[in-house]
Structures are given as structure tokens and as C-alpha cells.
Amino acid sequence: MSMITVQLGQCGNQVGGQLFSTISNDIDGKQHMVSSKENKEYGDQVVQRFFNRVDGRDIIEARAVMVDMESKVIAKTCLEAKKGGKWKYPDKQQYCQKRGSGNNWAHGYCVHGPNVKETVMEMVQKEAEKCDRLSGFLSLLSLAGGTGSGVGTFINESLRDEFPHSFIMNQVVWPYNTGEVIVQNYNAVLTLSHLYQTADAIVVMENDHLHKICSRLLDIKKISFKDINQVICHKLSSLFLPASSSDDNISQNDLGMILHHLVGHPEYKLLTIRNIPQMSDRSIEFSSFHWPGLLKHLRQMLVADAAMEEGIDWQVNAGDETPRGSVRHNRSLANMLVLRGKDVISTDTSSYLDPKLYTSWTDPELGFSKLIQPRAFNNYEKCAALISNSRSPIRPLNHIIDKAWNMFAARAYVHQYTQHGLNEEDFIDGFVTLEQVLASYKKL
Ligand code: GTP
């Protein structure tokens, strides 16, 4: 099964470039810990999923379409891929114009979107024809700008119209809380509320959390988007690189299977990914990993809603309630654990079947799934990823709705949106949709 990546705006294109590099580096990894035959089979599966082998050429091509309203980032991303010499982007599958969307969702959605639709959808169609079996789309974008969010939302709606039977998963980058763009919360509310209608799932990555992982776990002093994107791509790859169900060892983690396990209800589409371990290459050399310890920490990251293993609050227990009877710990609708590396088959994961981790109406046997892959990933002898549909998004969602609503109540900057054709009712619809999503998550 193959997946097409749609890279939207500056952030989407930079993350996409990093994703294909992370994946291609993983195929070339020397510390794979399986036989050469198994390693080759794994590599072939990865290529089929993410790349297209062009007859008669050594170099593989990413199954990707790139969209931005300015050409600089796309040109740089293509060049970096080509220089790396392992993979490249397909020719003529890039769409750019001369001017960005000025961090304005309405400019992207109402003006650029309809103008670019036909050409971009032709590119997507061309990419889809190269797949023997298409499982769906992974679209990458940030919530705060104007192109990824506005044009990206429009393109996602077009994908849904033209590929009604394919899955669509979005990966969205949440802006820094302190905010680089004054209207970022408007853009985020408009994007998320629209994507909720079209996407099958939305993977949330918060720049603030990723930044902390870079500084505290990876020990990076001057953090760039490149560093942050490496963390994002480690997370995405740990979900999407081949792994199979531990029950039958046959079912593969294609988009359909992932969605089947994690998104059973259309009101709950927000997913978060937690990983362990995450450390600098230097530290990996001097570390040894044990499954019981890794899984205990990862479980507590879930319970205490922590983004990383350092500084987890161990005082929070599954089942804890506040004196007023509201939930203190993080509860889930579904969790998918992906184990990679040594001894994955014999690892005990029964602690993830604890009913207290789940909402009262989830049967843990159905809410929990485990995938395994004996081949090591990204130089880690053992590593785990936990993909959750849980209460985690409540906090960031609350934050953007509150901030955006305060601005909207004063009608601040609204004219910048209405001048491109958006109405005040469109804002209100966005708030209503997200308030409903928030209310649903609070019920978990
Ligand atoms: P316009 O600039 O309005 O045309 O839209 P755009 O979609 O190209 O904007 P962009 O993707 O730059 O969106 C800005 C938001 O994305 C801010 O929250 C940035 O912090 C974030 N961002 C931009 N580039 C990256 C990146 O490479 N990685 C990460 N993680 N975040 C990024």
C-alpha cells in the first residue's frame, strides 16, 4: 500500500523534506539487528509505501506533491533532497506562485485556494496513478500561517471530493504559545474547524513541546526548525514505518489499519504521539535500554499527559480524581503502541490494558492495540511510540479558542479576513465546531 504526502506552505514543505530524509536514512541504517534478507524486505516495503522506483534509474522519488505560494522553500527543499543523492522529488509536481498568503487564512482559502485547485489536483492525480494500491494521503501543514492553513484546508477539501474512498490524515504543527503571528489563533481555529469535517484524523504536534524535547533530551543549544522537524519526523516515522499487528503478524500499519484502531468515532479525530527513548546520538552509544523501564515511563507520560520522559509527574495515577470528582489523569479512547527493535515479540505490555487508562465506555481489549517490528529504528536498539486518542488536546485547544475568541469579541483584525470574502458567521461556525470538539474530549 502506498501513501501520498501533500506538503503545504513553508512548514509543510520543510517537514516533508525532513520526513523523506529520515525514512531514507532509516533504510540505510547499519544497526538494523535483523538478517540481510529481512532488512531488504523491510526496505522494499518502505520504498513502496513512500517512494516511487523509476525504471532504469537508481534514485527513488518521493510520492509527494508540494504546494506553496512562494517558491523559495520548495526550491531549497528539492535542492537539499537532490544533494543528499539518495532520493529526489518527482519533476513538475511542485506548485508555487510569487506571493505568500501573508499569514491570512482567508487569503489562502478564499483567493489562492480556488486559483490553485485545478493544477494541484492534476498533480495529485498524476501521483495517484503511479501507485499500485493507494491507501491515502498524509498532508502536512502548520496552523498559524496563511498558505499551509488556508490553501491547505482548501486542498484537503478538494482531496476529499476527488478521492472519496481514500483516507486522509493531517499532521498539523501547533504554533508557539507566545506567538510569532498576531492572528495565529484565528488561523488555527479556522483550519482545525474545517479539517474536522474532511480529515479522518489529525495528528497534533506542538512547537513548544518539540522545542523542549530538542533542548532537554537532545541537548541542542541553538534550536532551529530543522532540529524540531527531526523530532516531528521521528514521531511520524515511528508510526508509519512498517510494523505489524502482534496478534497475527500479518496486518500492516497502513493508514486504514491505523485509523480503524485509533479513530472509531467521528467526534474524536485528534491524535498525539509520544516516543521513548529520545536522545542525542552521543548519548545512545552509552545507554542500554530495557523494555520494562521504557514501557513504564511511556505509560506514565500518557497518564500524566507529559510530552517527554524527563520531568514526568509520578504523583498522578491512573484513576485519580480531583476532590470535586473531575479527572486528574489523562484518559484515552484508544492507544496504539508500536515497538521496534530487540525482543519485541516477548515484551509484556499488559499494563496498557488497565481499564483506568480508558474512558468508561471503552473496552481496553478494543481500545488498545500493539504493533511490532523486530528491525531497529533510527539507531535505537529498542524504542517505542504510543499514539493516543486521549484528553491531551484539551489544553492546547482551550488555549487557541480562548485567545481567538477574545480577539474576535473586539472584532480585532476581522476586516483583514472579510476583505477576502470570509464572513463573521464563518468565524462563529469555526468556534462552534471547536467548542463541540472540546466538549466531546472533556467527556472522555
Ligand atoms: P504564509 O507565510 O502566510 O504564506 O503561510 P505558510 O503556511 O507558508 O506559513 P508557515 O508554514 O511558515 O506558518 C507559520 C507557522 O509555522 C508558525 O507557527 C511557525 O512556528 C511554524 N513553522 C514554520 N516553519 C516551520 C518548520 O519548518 N517547522 C515547524 N515545526 N514549524 C514551522
Question: What separation lies between the terminal Cα atoms?
Answer: 33 Å
Helix-strand pattern, N to C? EHHEEEHEEHEHEHEHHEHEHHEHEEHHH
What oligomeric state do the depicted chains represent? single chain
Proportion of strand residues: 15-25%
Work out the helix count.
Answer: 15
The hetero molecules present are: guanosine-5'-triphosphate
The proportion of residues forming helix, as a percent range, comes to 40-55%
Q: Note poorly predicted spans.
A: none
Main pleated-sheet profile? 11 strands, mixed
Mean pLDDT across every amino acid position: 93
Radius of gyration: 21 Å
InterPro entries: Delta_tubulin (IPR002967), Tub_FtsZ_C (IPR008280), Tubulin (IPR000217), Tubulin/FtsZ_GTPase_sf (IPR036525), Tubulin_C (IPR023123), Tubulin_CS (IPR017975), Tubulin_FtsZ_GTPase (IPR003008)
Function: Acts as a positive regulator of hedgehog signaling and regulates ciliary function.
Pfam family, one: Tubulin
Domain Tubulin/FtsZ GTPase: 51-247
Question: Any overview of this molecule?
Answer:
This protein has 444 residues and is α/β, with parallel strands linked by helices. The protein has 15 helices and 14 strands. It has an eleven-stranded mixed β-sheet, sandwiched between helices. A hairpin with a 6-residue loop joins strand 2 (51-53) and strand 3 (60-62). The structure holds guanosine-5'-triphosphate. Guanosine-5'-triphosphate is lined by residues 9-11, 14-15, 68-69, 100-103, 142, 144-149, 173, 175-176, 180, 207, 225, 228-229. GO terms for molecular function: GTP binding; structural constituent of cytoskeleton. Residues 51-247 form the Tubulin/FtsZ GTPase domain. This is Tubulin delta chain. Keywords: Cell projection, Cilium biogenesis/degradation, GTP-binding, Microtubule, Nucleotide-binding, Nucleus.
